Amino acid sequence: MKILQTLAFYLLVLVIVVVSVFPFYYAILTSFKTGTSLFEVDYWPTSFSLSNYYSVFQQGEFLRNILNSIFVATMTVALALLMAVTASYALARVRFRGRGLLLMTILAVSMFPQIAVLSGLFEMIRFIGIYNTPWALILSYTIFTLPFTVWVLTTFMRDLPVEIEEAAIVDGATPWQIITKVFLPLMWPALVTTGLLAFIGAWNEFLFALTFTSSNETRTVPVAISLLSGATQYETPWGIIMAASVLVTVPIIILVLIFQRKIVAGLTAGGVKG
Amino acid sequence: MNPSHVVSSSGKAELQAQRIRAAMLFLIPMIAALVLVAAYPLFRSIYFSFTDTSLSNLYGGQWIGFDNYLSWRTLPSGKTIFRGTLVDPAWWNAVWNTVRFAFVSVTLEATLGMIVALVLNAEFRGRGLVRAAILIPWAIPTIVSAKMWSWMLNDQFGIINNILMKLGIISQKIAWTASVDTAMFAVLIVDIWKTTPFMALLCLAGLQMVPKDVYEASKIDGIHPVKVFFKITLPLVKPALMVAIIFRMLDALRIFDLIYVLTPNSSTTKTMSIISRENMIEFDKFAYGSAQSTLLFTFIALFVILYIWLGKVDLSGDNK
Q: What is the ipTM of this complex?
């Protein structure tokens, strides 16, 4: 009975692992296949050809798309963190009227349906004249990266003990000095995690990227992948799509696995505060 | 009276005032940015929904009141014709699709997420490996998962049909993403695959807050583990679970990218976000699409208010 239970448990564990990993494994498998072997279902690696990876960079502007994604995500995250550090200090460490309301508003913005601001943002982006440039994306991505970073950093700062600040106050430090000299050195781990999560969010974003860019040279990776097509409408280049997918996913997966403990902590800080 | 005491007390008030002034300054950039990218565009979107603005004539829209939502005209024959989103069958189809998708996906994700979390909460060899494995679906960009799965669900060459045929579950190949009967099912599979890890991690964080001695005590008393789960664990995890569910629900109600890539043009999976963008950008009915996005916004806002009010969920974590 006991053995049966253990067996069932490990079977469940196996199912969880296989289901989680298999689609990505299959994408890698497909990306190494060419020609007719693409259309034969294999469960184990049968061929190893890099021609799909070569083709990805041959057609379209894939390298440019990757650089666009890196630029947009990095700028968005940098701007969000810059504003979030001071804002979260104020929200976490200073008592003032309307703080609870402000926090709720920030949370509400982070849960916004992005479609609700699409037409307004479209008008604004056209008006400023940044349509079809990376800046349109950097501007629009702020709507989800900023509330998220503020929220997570606020929960992090709130949990730091009062004492670390008191000594600095007694020494006559200004609030700005307290942030830069006392909190910032303590916050590096939190900043890295929050920044990474926001980076992943910006890297994966699709709706704004699809709507606010219109040419191959300005698109980001997700939009480029969604638009990859073959010579004719009925011929989907699955090998190339899988190669592109693997290329943009591997760096993210490596980052996530390196920082997995911190990411889990960061994700739950946003959600669970029972 | 100790004079130095008086000084320090007024100095304290001065200090507090200084801190609040600094806090206001610190908040200005963030508030300004949020007004620019959230409040103002939201206001403009709502405004557009009351005009006849089109994509080709962004600045020439005229105020037409509620006509995008509902308008009617009585013909000389006495017949009344209704127009607008609120009598548009395509819109109500999208509403129904969205609600069905959100409800089914979140229910299954919460259940499966809880099961995965319970597994991860047990102590066994290789636990770290399992946790790393479940992070992979979460880390993969939605567009990439949609493409990966549409390849696996491909009717002719897909591995899913291959597996099911080999196991004898189906006798002929199914066009998962194209057929009207299975398109929503395909969307649900991919969404559940991608999002259950997130639910599991949130549930796990909740489970880890349950003190271990509770389990030991119930073990000594010989209570069945299933009973322990429903009577002790679940009530203790409930606050965390409620927050996780609302986050996921809001995410599900606005779903766009997965469906746009996995089942384009399938009317059985068209959601509110999809139909709204379609009208706005592709069909040159900018104002009409804005009306639909405004309705979605209102719907979600009402849902949040209701959920917080009914569930007494403390989202701010302020009174802990």
A: 0.89
